[in-house]
Amino acid sequence: MKVLVTERIAKEGIEILKNEGIEVDEKIGLTHEEICNIIGEYDALIVRSSTKVNEEMIKCGKNLKVIARAGVGIDNVDVESATKHGIIVVNAPDGNIMAAAELTIGLIFSIFRYIPQAYMSCKQGDFRRNKFKGVELYEKTAGIIGFGKIGALVAERLKACGMRVIAYDPYVSDEKFKKYGVEKVDFDTLLKESDLITIHTPKTKETYNLISEKEFKKMKKGVRIVNCARGGVINENDLYNAIKEGIVAAAALDVLEKEPNFELEKQDYYNPLLELDNVVITPHLGASTQEAQVNVAVSVAREVAAVLKGGIAKNAVNLPAFEKERLEEIMPYLELAEAMGKIFIQAERTFANKIEIVYSGQIDEKTTTWLTRALLKGYLEFSVQDTVNYVNSQLLAKEQGIEVIESKKEESGKFKNMITARFTTSEKVLELSGTVYNNEGRIIDFFGYKVDFKPEKYMLLIQNIDKPGMIGKIGTIVGEYGINIATMQVSRNKKGEKAVMVCEVDGALPDEAVEKLKNTDGILRVTMAKL
């Protein structure tokens, strides 16, 4: 067994692999072409963030069984291509959570007490302390956007400073807020009441530009903002303007939407925020501690060793360890189950306190275990900050306070096998059902409406009044934005009442188009879902 390591990782990780009898080649600084030329010899590949593991490289890795990213994100790995080739992708989702939380706290103190500015002033021989009159955290209100693992760690530390801590996260249970003594509030309340806003969400379609001009106008004058999560969650141009207008007193950013090269001493990089003295910018240091680097190296080394020795990777991002023949049979069911979770959470955008999954037909028990995890993975990917995978999805669901019930029955009606998922929220119970035929997953019941469609990458989910002309209105608006409708499913239960439409479209509709659809007479709800 051979492992190729193309970027520097802590020696502790290398030693774990060698102690398992695995041959390790550390070849740092190879070009993409050089890796493609040699990767066919290796059973595993370990990278950090610089190596771009694309489809070409994956195809060249004819013996690859596992690709490991020594870090949290997997932006530089083509997970879809790896999945198609039966290669497990793993990462280290918990290795740097303490490092990220502590950096957040450090930046908060920095912008409340102007520590970096005071330091630079002293370095330049100017010791006038009256220039740096700060503000205390004590008895101020801290607003946390995203109450996952890092958000919770930050909350504990801010409460120790005597702060009132409020948080916004619609996908977290009330029990978790109570556990940490944090007030659960809506987004607008957080914006209006916070003296400090700190962000701990992933970057998704929902969170991109989450804070822009409209949100800044709702904030307290003098608010301070920290972002150690992902660039793009804050609109940087609007942040610049809010600082110049005096709405935001100070900001600290460890992440930027467009980031510089972190390896070059000097480069041509410009960001207007660098001009502002009350903005602290750090070069994406969230994981840059000795402990975090050891943690991620040890974590991925153990994952790689487990896979190569026939075990299960605890942090598999894409798929469980099935034999290749079984994987081809099971994959359509895994994709269907995951799509069902994604469809529900995007269509409803609300917390489900109970998820019941009923398997009908000939699906065996080992398979149902993974299908449940796949469905929870799809649901949680859009609702928690943590990296979600097939192995940890059940644990994360439990942490969120979700009751998961799985059952099996032999009868499946006219279908060989069927999956039914029942989502219970605080207001209602909604049900999705799906099956597999011709080796592809199909949704056959959409919240009580009989349908038959294959979950696709881009789908418009629409609820409307059943009356003439609705299809034409929708088609016209979608066409105005140059998006083609590939397929359309229409279903109703009773003439003249509510109906549903599921449209497969060739691309994501812009927010403007979605809003136009929502404001169209007869349309009750519109969701632009992306799988």
UniProtKB/TrEMBL annotation:
Give the protein's recorded name: D-3-phosphoglycerate dehydrogenase
Which PROSITE patterns does its entry note?
ACT (PS51671), D_2_HYDROXYACID_DH_1 (PS00065), D_2_HYDROXYACID_DH_3 (PS00671)
Q: Which UniProt keywords apply?
A: Amino-acid biosynthesis, NAD, Oxidoreductase, Serine biosynthesis
A GO molecular function annotation here is: NAD binding
Documented EC number(s): 1.1.1.95
InterPro entries recorded for this chain? ACT-like_dom_sf (IPR045865), ACT_dom (IPR002912), ASB_dom_sf (IPR029009), D-isomer_2_OHA_DH_cat_dom (IPR006139), D-isomer_DH_CS (IPR029753), D-isomer_DH_CS1 (IPR029752), D-isomer_DH_NAD-bd (IPR006140), NAD(P)-bd_dom_sf (IPR036291)
Catalytic activity field: (2R)-3-phosphoglycerate + NAD(+) = 3-phosphooxypyruvate + NADH + H(+); (R)-2-hydroxyglutarate + NAD(+) = 2-oxoglutarate + NADH + H(+)
Record-stated family: Belongs to the D-isomer specific 2-hydroxyacid dehydrogenase family.
Chain's role: Catalyzes the reversible oxidation of 3-phospho-D-glycerate to 3-phosphonooxypyruvate, the first step of the phosphorylated L-serine biosynthesis pathway. Also catalyzes the reversible oxidation of 2-hydroxyglutarate to 2-oxoglutarate.
Residue ranges occupied by any ACT domain in the UniProt entry: 459-531
Q: Does the keyword Isomerase apply?
A: no
Q: Name one GO biological process term.
A: L-serine biosynthetic process
List the SUPFAM superfamilies. Answer: ACT-like, Formate/glycerate dehydrogenase catalytic domain-like, NAD(P)-binding Rossmann-fold domains, Serine metabolism enzymes domain
Query: Pathway it acts in?
Result: Amino-acid biosynthesis; L-serine biosynthesis; L-serine from 3-phospho-D-glycerate: step 1/3
